[in-house]
Amino acid sequence: MTPHARDAQIRDSGHHLDSTTRRPSRALTRALTAATALALVVGPGAGAAIAAPVSPTAPDGTPSSGTPWTAAAALPTQQLSPAAPAAPARSSAPGTTLPQQSAPLTEAQRAATVVTKGTDLAALKKEQGANGAFLGQSVKGRASGGGPARTQSGTNSNTAGKSILSYTIPSGGVLGMDVSGWQQNVNWSTAWNQGSRFAYVKSSEGNAKINDYFGQQYNGAAAMGMIRGAYHFALPGVTSGASQADAFIASGGGWSGDGKTLPPLLDVEYNPYSAIAGGNVCFGLSGPQMVSWIKDFSNRMQARTGRAPAIYTTTDWWSKCTGNSTAFGDNPLHLAAYSSWVGPMPASWSTFSIWQFSSTGPFVGDSNQWNGSYAQLQTFARGAVVPPVPPAVVKPAPAPKPKPAPSGPSIKSAADVVAADSGGTLWNYPAVDGKTALSGRYRIGSGWASARSVTVIDWNNDGYFDLLAQWRSGIVTMYTGKPTGGFNTPRILFTGGMAGAQLTVGYWIASSASPQILSRNTDGTVTLWRYTDGGYVYNAGTIGRGWNGLDMTMVDFDGDGYQDILARRGNGDLALYRGNGRGSFVGEARRVVGWGWNAITALSITSGFATDGSTGINARRTDGTLQHYPLSGRGGWGTRTQIGNGGWNPMLIAGGETIRAN
């Protein structure tokens, strides 16, 4: 179609939203992906004077917003299915490498962690009863507003008389369960038929075995074919971590690298007993004392079994009772969060190994999800790392060979414009601080002629910008940036299947420490792809349908701290699809925030270009000029500036892909 002759128009709602929200301790990555991250798009856009904002007409209701990524909804009918990526150097789920044992506590240090020697053991025993506490006991009480209890039949009841909580089964991963003496005779066949493939069984609490059904539960799960393991309910401060580890092992809490035994699990959570430190949630221990106690337990377990324990906890308890310690990143994380999404991670971890998502079903006891495939769960159980398998794919030819910038990292600012010319040379155009302008370019790579899109983003959160490359062959690779310039050997994220997809990248899940990819597929579905700590990207569900013909750009348009999607329609309207920060869209009529954008052939997001902390869109027009449209941070626009004269049409600009003018 003939490009629309008039200039792109913008619409401003004028309503104020807080635009100062930032990801804690992620200033660089948040600055880069306050929208999407820079993606390579061809050439800059033109610019005439912008007309006064026009009142938007009521936008149509399509495309549909789809369902949240966490719901167990059906995947798209013609979903793109990229081949599984090559196995990385470690398993994709966290905690599969064996941590180095830290120095054992001295006797004086160990003694300092036992601060409740005056505990009335008789009163404690009375509170414990026959079965004691269980995984998530105090978590359930806090979630429901009352103190939880278990009936002897194993069903969940609540002493406050609350109704049974609903639950959402997350998509992906592998489902499992955990049980204790409260469940008694578990019907493992039923659990298997419901989808459970692994189980944790309580064996001990404090310095005693508290589960008369441990043997039959542990062996019953194994006989059904489940990968199983034992867990210990910690009573920190009553006795030392080492002595409770010894009691755990004596009660069945050992480990074997047979691929059928999960690592020992340490349950540290809110104190459920008034007999211990008057019910203090941290068992009367300070943050440093709690950290020392957990280290003492972990060291003893590793020394005696050869495997460091996984740690079960909640983000809130970890913050309150360990001072948000970062010392346990090598211990796998089993996180409790009764919600449709897992929420923020405790400070020691960037992601979880196992998520306890429900105490009310589908399984008896509690329900969990392993963060990976079944094969990866087996690797996790073995405690070994499977050697990487060379991918059976043809690499792009010629392979890009990025060259270092004059000094320091190749890409120094989220405001820089990165673009590849028609010959495949990759250039960086540095932004001039506070000038809303670009300075002289320099070469940072070659061999990029066959790229469909490129995104600049700090993918691994190391403070240096990386390159995510989508090739016309359908392969997607990641080049991590070096602090001295240049890029490391690429890692393949998708071995194929992405040739027809349009990608946009950013923090669609606001709580995640790692960015996500949204792909608009050839069947019109939009898929959320999440990144695991081990390097895999996995399908986290469909978040939209009916997106054929729409061009997507991810950006926090309204300044609420959550990423949104700006969708360019075929008629040139720019529609706003606000994200809720949890993986799906806000249910509302779609506001049109601009018109006349059918003359635009490239859209990319930039951060800090106009002022520190600012966000804007660089748009290339059909006349080859590059325009900068700043966002107001309140759901509107600032004054446009032309930052590039004609001549950008042959360029693939970072921040998206070359899009067709309508």
Automatic annotation (TrEMBL):
The main location class comes to: secreted
Compositionally biased spans, kind Polar residues: 95-104, 150-160
Q: Which Pfam families does the entry link to?
A: Glyco_hydro_25
Disordered: region residues: 1-25, 80-109, 135-160
Q: Which SUPFAM superfamilies match?
A: (Trans)glycosidases (SSF51445), Integrin alpha N-terminal domain (SSF69318)
The taxonomy runs: Bacteria, Bacillati, Actinomycetota, Actinomycetes, Micrococcales
Please name the CDD domains in this protein's record: GH25_CH-type
| Annotated EC | 3.2.1.17
Residues in coiled coil: none
Biased segments, Basic and acidic residues type: 1-21
Highest taxon of source: Bacteria
Report the subcellular localization.
Secreted
Named from the GO MF annotations, one term is: lysozyme activity
Identify its protein family: Belongs to the glycosyl hydrolase 25 family.
InterPro entries to which the protein is assigned, alphabetical: GH, Glyco_hydro_25, Glyco_hydro_fam25_subgr, Integrin_alpha_N
Its annotated function is as follows:
This enzyme has both lysozyme (acetylmuramidase) and diacetylmuramidase activities.
Keyword tags: Antimicrobial, Bacteriolytic enzyme, Disulfide bond, Glycosidase, Hydrolase, Secreted
Low complexity biased stretches: 80-94
The record's catalysed reaction(s) read:
Hydrolysis of (1->4)-beta-linkages between N-acetylmuramic acid and N-acetyl-D-glucosamine residues in a peptidoglycan and between N-acetyl-D-glucosamine residues in chitodextrins
User: What's in the GO CC field?
Assistant: extracellular region
Biological processes, Gene Ontology terms = carbohydrate catabolic process; cell wall macromolecule catabolic process; defense response to bacterium; killing of cells of another organism; peptidoglycan catabolic process
Q: What is this protein called?
A: lysozyme
